[in-house]
Amino acid sequence: MTDIQGKRILLGLSGGIAAYKAAELTRLLTQAGAEVRVVMTEAACRFITPVTMQALSGNPVHTDLWDARVSNNMAHIELSRGCDAIVVAPASADFLAKLALGLCDDLLSTLCLARECRLLAAPAMNLQMWGNPATQRNLKQLRADGIAILGPASGDQACGEVGMGRMLEAEEIFEEIDACFQPRLLAGKRVLVTAGPTFEPIDTVRGIANTSSGKMGYAVARAARDAGAAVTLVSGPTALAAPRGLERIDVSSAQQMYDAVMARVAKADVFIGVAAVADYRPTEAKGHKLKKGTGEITLQLRPNPDILGTVATRRNAPFCVGFAAETENLEANADAKRRRKKVPLLAANLAQHAFGADDNQLILFDDQGRHELPRAPKIVLARALIAHIAKLLPKK
Question: Considering 117, 159, 180, 320, which one is annotated as catalytic?
Fold first, then answer.
């Protein structure tokens, strides 16, 4: 479930080979429950047909400023009214220039000028076109005008070159559209999040770890970003891609995570410790691979530093949120942990139901008691958690 459900999205396509990604974006939007109307420029029709976009959106595609199907022959007015957002993907260098100058010589540029809703543009062009001073001036103006610029990314381009200008993938644009409908509950706040497992080396090839996937921590980081916060994500070893628009710090061991957090926590307004940090590490990590023997082997372990506990007891500590993954006696253990760590909010879940899964269920514990969040996708829970944090933050 996303906040795109029930929204009316007008998807505009300008000319560019990346138009093929608009087909997948349309599919994602309609699957999420959005009503999608498609408007294409003449150049866009050279790359993908209106028939394709009509089949995927389930609605007629509009290409002509003088479309007689619109009763008052004012497609540029009728199509944009009632829309929750206009998304132009791909947005060519030419189309971005039109937007920056307020030109309107076709249906798509005209309805963008006549809109009453938010406008998002996903640039797509050759790297030299992207880097051209004229394009960069146009982008500066568009941002100043309140138009959201999504991307682009760096990578292989259809021309055979490699660099900036590649349009974001459909899934990335979908997430950015979803984010634009989120309330800016943490606007101006700085949030520090830990995520994933830690790896405590035994020797050069073996170590102590856990089965945390990092999905919940990454969802929390994304939700905080979507709520308007400046987010730093300190991540243990995971294959997940970091959400766009935040700082990611990669670490391996609990000590490295501790050091990364301590180096940054003084600037944080909120600290959310989602990571499944190992409680112990081997006393000595061998600098070579231990050979298999015939008998037993004994590992000496020492405690790892308590990241959450240390942050919570700092002078001028940020608002601290802990996580507890339990296997039994969830509520008693979680509430006891919150009181022991002296944190204002703790989120608890059963580890056997959460690690590696795409959904979860949480119980939040604070001074007012318990607040249950029923099973849902982790991004939905993360947004509910961020909303709860926003309510508890001191009002300035």
Answer: 159
Q: Give phi and psi for 124, each to the nearest 5.
A: -150, 115
Residue 152: asked if its preceding bond is cis (omega within 30°), the reply is yes
Which sign does the torsion angle of CA 210, 211, 215, 220 carry?
A: negative
CA gap 50, 62 in Å, rounded: 8
Q: Tell whether 129 and 219 lie within a shared domain.
A: no
In angstroms, how far apart are the furthest CA atoms of the chain?
Answer: 87
Q: Positive or negative CA dihedral for 181, 190, 357, 251?
A: positive
104 belongs to the catalytic site = no
For residues 239 and 149, state if they share a domain.
no
Cα 379 versus chain centre, distance: 9
The whole-angstrom separation of Cα 355 and Cα 327 is: 11
Strand partners, 372: 363
Residue from 153, 79, 158 nearest 112 by CA? 79
Could you tell me the two tokens for 219? 């969802």
Q: What is d(CA 107, CA 69) in angstroms, rounded to the nearest whole number?
A: 14
- The total number of structural domains in the chain stands at 2
Average pLDDT of each block of 10 consecutive residues along the chain (396 residues)?
85 96 97 95 96 96 78 63 93 96 93 93 96 97 96 86 92 94 94 96 88 92 96 95 92 96 96 94 85 81 94 94 81 85 88 69 90 91 96 85
Whole-number Cα distances in Å, 385 to 103, 106, 197: 43, 44, 21
Same domain, 230 and 336: yes
